[in-house]
Amino acid sequence: MHEKGSPRRIRAIAWREFRYTVLTKGFVIGAIVLPLIMFAAIPLIPMLMSSKSAPLVGRVVVIDPSDKLAKPFELSLPTTPQDSLKKEKKSLMGSEAVEVSLTVENVTDTARTDEFRKQLKDSVLRALIIVTPAPEGPTAELLVPSGASPRHTTILESSLREALTRARVAQANEDYDRLSKLMQRASVETKRVSPEGSESREIAQLRMLVPAGFMFLLWIAVFTSCNYLLTSTIEEKSSRVMEVLLSAASPIELLAGKLVGQAGVASVMLAMYGGVGLAGLGAFAMLDIVPPTHLLWLAVWFPLAYFTVASIMVSIGSAVSDLREAQALVGPAMMTLMIPLILWLPIVESPNGMLATVCSFLPPAAPFVMILRLTAANEPVPIWQSMLAVLTSVAAVCVIVWAGARIFRVGVLMQGKPPTPMELLRWIRAR
């Protein structure tokens, strides 16, 4: 009779754990409402990024006694909206070019500087350039009104920098156009070819960030639910609710129900934020950088990562009475779990290197390291290493869950001084 009732009790405890977590206001906002808002906003991103910028129109005064910079500055201004886009230091993907129509006026009388400063303050001028002659070539100071657009300022800065270069080249009796063509950076267009044969623009930085995205997605889903598990266990123990629950179920049933219930919480977070990430890539036609095998590996490593971390957290929560006591015990485990966060860049750059290979077999960090290696774009991981890492992690999960269950069985009814790591080892060995 006891064996027949055990699955029902575990399901009841798991549903209680899941319900009391997902129905909290903080979880609903952070894990459901926020991703839904992000998902709804994805179609608007291209429209927002391609919003038309105000034209750069007006007067620019150049105060230059030598009258050598106004003409080069005028030549350096963009003549087409596409040229203005090239003048920007950082242009977002999909940004609209800026239309530029400026009148450049040269003034040789430096005594009128204050007059033009006042006009600039009143936004009558778009910019004021004050030139200082020098033997090696002129230098200049660019002044813009307080309400100047950052994109407009960037275009003015770039044009002024080019104008100063033109003036210096002319002072050296050289041909600026000839030299600029010789020194122009050669353009290389890199394209990514999908297995179906379609071509799309390759962004190497994004390819480096995709493995980190997978790891952080796994990290957030696992640690958010495990943090709920730790705090709820401590609260139930300190408020004596645990004793009421133990009157209706055994410690092992209670532990199993808690682990299964929070696994559902982690799955919800993984699905919500993972869906937003895939939708974002789809909006920019970059979904092919996440092949289905990456998602399959995520499905393999997610339960292994969750049950590894969850067993550690729930056993620590059962052994202490408040969060401050838990920090001392969580610290050693977190040192190992921080390995993927610290070493993600060298692991992604060399997924088959010695460092990445060794870390793949170090529980409890192995699931996070392996998802980095398997989603890295530059080198495929040998299949035997992947299979061996899965088997090693499964064995580690079994050991950690078994040890956590023995700690939980003793710790849920313990009160008073928190145990030391050596006392936890004695609890694990106790019959």
Characterise this structure.
With 431 residues, the protein is of the alpha/beta class. It is built from 18 helices and six strands. The chain has helices at residues 2-22, 25-41, 44-49, 70-76, 81-87, 113-121, 150-171, 176-183, 204-238, 241-246, 251-283, 292-319, 323-337, 339-349, 354-359, 366-375, 383-411, 421-429, and strands at residues 56-63, 100-107, 127-132, 139-143, 191-193, 199-201. The chain has a four-stranded mixed sheet, with helices on both faces. A two-stranded antiparallel ribbon has the order 5-6. A hairpin with a 5-residue loop joins β5 (191-193) and β6 (199-201). The model is unreliable at 1-5 and 90-94 (pLDDT under 50).
Number of β-strand runs? 6
Q: What percent strand?
A: 5-15%
Structural class: alpha/beta
Radius of gyration: 31 Å
Distance between the termini: 25 Å
Q: What is the number of helices? A: 18
Topology at a glance:
Layout: H1 2-22, H2 25-41, H3 44-49, E1 56-63, H4 70-76, H5 81-87, E2 100-107, H6 113-121, E3 127-132, E4 139-143, H7 150-171, H8 176-183, E5 191-193, E6 199-201, H9 204-238, H10 241-246, H11 251-283, H12 292-319, H13 323-337, H14 339-349, H15 354-359, H16 366-375, H17 383-411, H18 421-429
Parallel strand pairs: 1-2, 1-3
Antiparallel strand pairs: 3-4, 5-6
